[in-house]
Design a protein that fits this description.
Blueprint lengths: L6 E5 L3 H12 L3 E5 L3 H20 L5 H10 E4 L10 E4 L5 H11 L8 E4 L6 H6 L7 E6 L8 E6 L5 H13 L3 E5 L7 H17 L5 H11 L6 H8 L1 H15 L8 H8 L12 E2 L6 E2 L2
Parallel strand pairs: 1-2, 1-4, 2-3, 4-5, 5-6, 7-8
Antiparallel strand pairs: 6-7, 9-10
Helix pairs in contact: 1-2, 1-3, 7-9, 7-10, 10-11
The chain binds 3-hydroxybutanoyl-coenzyme A.
3-hydroxybutanoyl-coenzyme A binds next to helix 2, helix 7 and helix 9.
């Protein structure tokens, strides 16, 4: 008998975790959001509140919906609260050893029929599932950034994911108001397999001096009608994330066409990770972002 999803757990109160909690709360699900840091949880709830207030201002949701959704989202510093969850979405750091550690703490807390979804953007779902006690109830559920705005969720079945888990999760995504694209479990799935090499190519274009930061972003915004230029988008997503996806593609597909641009590596080594550290291809420490090259 398939589990009916009523209560959702979210692990990780970063940008993606808080966005996922936001979407689930608005769709009427009870949500528990977990992080090791109380400060991060506090910041996440403030971000969710602020983003919902913006949606009210733009008349996308009502004040009543905002209030009710906020009431449904409960912070938790420990994982025992997940015992009451039907689905737990892991949105921890994109590092396999971190995710494995999370699962080892999470699994003993869960009911045997609960589903674990990973928001991993590039790591093999089959491999992650194998690190849990329930590979058949494990699935990739990849939200796009920002989760509250982007219409898509990628669903990725691991080799062992059963049909009930897949159908239940698909129905859940539809209830969130998202459109699902199903991807096979190969490195970086569909969106990042296509998007990240484009971003990496934009960085090569900068590295080789074909264009400036502004020229490259203007070219793609106005010339290809992308909502953000590729370097702006790289800063938005996080340069560490871009690099880790490129490394996953390079190693996983063993093809030199995916080699990360040395300039991307250099920015990450400098700790210039984009918006989250205030510096990336743009410097965000003043009101108007200024290119850093
Ligand atoms: N939460 C809630 N609402 C938000 C929001 C947030 N965090 N950020 C923006 N919004 C809403 C605004 O309220 C506004 O709503 P409206 O259309 O109803 O008025 C709408 O989004 C547009 O916002 P703004 O007018 O402030 O800003 P922009 O028009 O510049 O849009 C953007 C912002 C939606 C982020 C747009 O620039 C965009 O679509 N950028 C590309 C994003 C993208 O490609 N994401 C995918 C990245 S890849 C990925 O996520 C995979 C991962 O694994 C790396």
């Amino acid at each position: 008998m398939a589990v009916k999803i009523k209560r959702v757990g979210v692990i990780g109160a970063g940008h993606m975790g808080s966005g996922i909690a936001h979407v689930c709360g608005l769709a009427g699900y009870g949500v528990v959001i977990n992080d090791l840091s109380a400060d991060r949880l506090k910041a996440a709830l403030a971000t969710i509140n602020g983003n919902m207030a913006r949606q009210v201002k733009r008349q996308r949701i009502t004040e009543e919906q905002r209030k009710n959704a906020l009431k449904r989202i409960v912070p938790a510093e420990s994982m025992d609260v997940f015992a009451s969850c039907d689905l737990v979405i892991e949105a921890a750091t994109e590092k396999e050893e971190v995710k494995r550690k999370v699962y080892s703490e999470l699994c003993p807390m869960l009911r045997s029929d609960a589903i674990i979804g990973s928001n991993s953007s590039s790591i093999s779902i089959t491999r992650l599932a194998a690190a849990t006690d329930r590979p058949e109830h494990f699935i990739g559920i990849h939200f796009m950034n920002p989760p509250a705005v982007m219409e898509l969720v990628e669903l990725i079945r691991g080799i062992a994911t059963d049909d009930e888990t897949f159908e239940t999760t698909r129905e859940f995504c539809v209830n969130l108001g998202k459109t699902v694209a199903v991807s096979e479990d190969f490195p970086a799935f569909i969106v990042n397999r296509i998007l990240m090499p484009m971003i990496n190519e934009a960085i090569y274009t900068l590295y080789e001096g074909v264009g400036t930061v502004e020229a490259i972003d203007t070219a793609m915004r106005l010339g290809a009608h992308h909502p953000m230029g590729p370097l702006q988008l790289a800063d938005f997503v996080g340069l560490d994330t871009c690099l880790s996806v490129m490394q996953m593609l390079y190693e996983g597909l063993a093809d030199s066409k995916y080699r990360p641009c040395p300039l991307l590596v250099k920015y990450v080594e400098a700790g210039w990770l984009g918006r989250k550290t205030q510096r990336g291809f743009y410097d965000y420490r003043q009101e108007k972002p200024v290119p850093t090259r």
